[in-house]
Amino acid sequence: MSLYLRSAAFTPIETINISTGGGVPDAFGKIAIIIKSQTDRVISSVPEIDATKIDRHFLCSTMIELPFSSLAIRERDLNFTKPPAKLPVTSFINTYECASWGYSLRHYLKQRPDSTYIMVSILDANLMDLSFWRSNENWGTSGFGLCTLLIEVRNLSLVTLTASCAITYNTTAEFATVIRKMVTGRDDLTLSLPFFPENIRQIFTRLLNGIEKLPDLHDRWGHCFGSDPWLNIICQGVEGRFTQEENLLACSIALNGYYCTTEVLVDTKSNFLLSEAV
Amino acid sequence: MKTTVRLSGVLERNPYPLSPKVCEARMLPLKEESDFIAISALPVNTCPVLLNHTEHYRLLEELLQIIEQSSLSIDIILLRMQMPAGGRMPKAFLTDSVLMLHDVVGEESILLREGKSYIVIEDSLPRHPFESGSNQLEVRISTAESSQLLVEALAKQLIECGFANIKMYTMDGTT
Lengths: 278, 175
Prior knowledge:
The structure holds two protein chains of two kinds.
Chain A: E1 3-12, H1 24-44, E2 54-60, H2 66-69, E3 91-93, H3 100-111, E4 117-124, H4 131-134, E5 135-136, E6 140-141, E7 145-153, E8 161-165, H5 171-183, E9 189-192, H6 198-207, H7 218-221, H8 228-238, E10 246-253, E11 258-266, E12 271-274
Parallel strand pairs in A: 1-12, 2-3, 2-4, 9-10
Antiparallel strand pairs in A: 1-7, 4-7, 5-6, 8-11, 10-11
Helix pairs in contact in A: 5-6
Chain B: E1 3-11, H1 33-40, H2 53-69, E2 76-80, E3 98-101, H3 105-113, E4 118-123, E5 136-143, H4 148-160, E6 163-170
Parallel strand pairs in B: 2-3, 2-4
Antiparallel strand pairs in B: 1-5, 1-6, 4-5
Helix pairs in contact in B: 2-4
């Protein structure tokens, strides 16, 4: 462990899309306000941290792509400007789908080995209200929202971060096997896995049998893409699970086989914020 | 002192005209009436689509191979990549020496400010009518070393792949 989760927030986004009025730019304007608000809340939740030392804010996504690729919205629309967030988004990464957060961390830690804090947000919102994104056979029902993480890098040489891609197209089973290999002999680690319906979840149940895991929350939240492992940690934190230091392995897998994992420490000083749905 | 060299061109034909086409990209399934209405509301690109996803990745892989064969010491390569990807992208794009973003400008400005040696491949090659783009490609090389040989090799490759209007210039404006 060498990444410490200082603060984490999740806001479910259930009602903002073009079907509820306005086009994609209007809908995304509302999202930009949520990004700003959540960024400020997360930074404000740790007043002991010098905010000027948080120098990067990556925004990741899996399923917000067509509005950007078609130029219905542009990257500058991510940041609300009146007034701006305490740390506006500096980079938008959706290329690695649900594993984008891990690839962002890998890039940052390699390029800025001297940094102490990093902010990562994960946004998935069905702006166009497309039926594929509501539910499909790959992951069942979807859940949408914005997750924001403030992570402290305590010792870069000890960071355990993997950003990679499956070799086969039996991706979930391969992913589970990779995780099994990672945690063998590590009784101190608890897995925080992506949320899947029972028919897919059984791959984890069977291949990761006997390994400590946080409960699957698909029934409550649906599959929330790259946010899943972090949303699970937030839910446990809000419910008071972390009464002492706990090492977690956050894991995400993308439909095209990209995956990422990282060990992260949480303790009683970690802040967890779970907002009402908007 | 670092110099940024720009190499740009415009794709005018399919880059691999004699190769069989593998049209295997998966696109978003549209099922309900509302799906069609939502997609119809997106902006329409009138620029011709001259290559598919597989050919786009092949083109970028070939450019990355040329960069890898050069002796330049580069901290990071940025690739501009539109999504959805249509399928799994090549391994060469997933290494820790490459970062793919929808918009490279913000990340590039940070690398420039931090004095990194970097290469950006920024293209606007539409692979599907959903995608915006003007069929332009630009490579920017920012390094203290001479990049002349690399620029020449990349220009040769682009010409072979159907790019025209090739321009090379440095940040001071010399062509």
